[in-house]
Amino acid sequence: MTCSLPRTLLLVAVCLAITVTASAKDANAPKPVKKTTVAIKDAKGNTIGSATIKTAGKGVEVKLNVKDLPPGEHALHFHQNAKCDAPDFKSAGPHFNPDNKQHGTLNPAGHHNGDMANFTVKPNGTSKATVKNPDVVLGTGSEANSLFANGGTALMIHAKPDDMKTDPAGNAGDRIACGVITK
């Protein structure tokens, strides 16, 4: 069996074209975000600190560095909309909940993806806290549980601690500070 040179060159050219096309598609694929920093603002629109959100294991880690907050324990949640219209921050919508569960990490039926542990503010109004959330990702925005899905989300600080069980928001009280999370 003989193979002609033109046929071999054609076969090599086709293989090369397929490889180049596949590489171009990979190069155009969105890259997952590994870290983002969010400005946190109070109800008067003043920046009171920041939150650095980074990929950690299967979820994210939130490093808060805030000031001018009331001392004590506060709830921290991811909310559905990438909006923080002062003074009440209701524009952020409900908790981020793509899995359609009930509220509270102690809820036997499961909890919102946006539910997280409480954090403590010192008597001088400052806090440097780290809170983990294994139920959300930064990702590309195409994942249902990505904080960038549907245009983004918001990070909310509430006036009171979350009781971890009461639907829909854990009796966490007013929304007192907020940060928009977008790519």
Key features of this structure:
7-stranded antiparallel beta sheet; 1 helix; 13% helix; alpha+beta; Immunoglobulin-like; two-stranded antiparallel sheet; 183 residues
- The count of DSSP E runs of length 2 or more, i.e. the number of strands, is 9
C-alpha-based Rg, rounded: 23 Å
- Please name the CATH topology: Immunoglobulin-like
Enumerate the strands of the largest sheet in spatial order, edge to edge or round the barrel. Answer: 5-8-9-1-2-3-7
Q: Strand count, sense and closure of the main sheet?
A: 7 strands, antiparallel
Query: SS-based structural class?
Result: alpha+beta
Q: How would you spell out the order of helices and strands?
A: HEEEEEEEEE
Helix content: 10-25%
Identify the overall geometry.
Answer: globular
Quaternary structure state of the chains depicted: single chain
Beta-strand percent range: 25-35%
Low-confidence stretches: 19-25
Can you tell me the CATH architecture? Sandwich
What is the CATH superfamily label? Superoxide dismutase, copper/zinc binding domain
| Spatial separation of the terminal alpha carbons | 58 Å
Number of helices, where a helix is a run of at least 4 consecutive DSSP H or I residues: 1
Number of domains: 1
Mean model confidence by pLDDT: 85
User: Which class in CATH terms?
Assistant: Mainly Beta
Description:
The chain has 183 residues and is of the alpha+beta class. The protein has a single domain (35-181), classed as Immunoglobulin-like. Helices cover 13% and strands 31% of the residues. The protein is built from one helix and nine strands; from the N terminus they run αβββββββββ. The protein has one helix at 5-28; strands spanning 35-42, 47-56, 59-66, 72-74, 76-79, 119-121, 127-133, 153-158, 175-181. The N and C termini lie far apart (58 Å). Mean pLDDT is 85; it is low at 19-25.
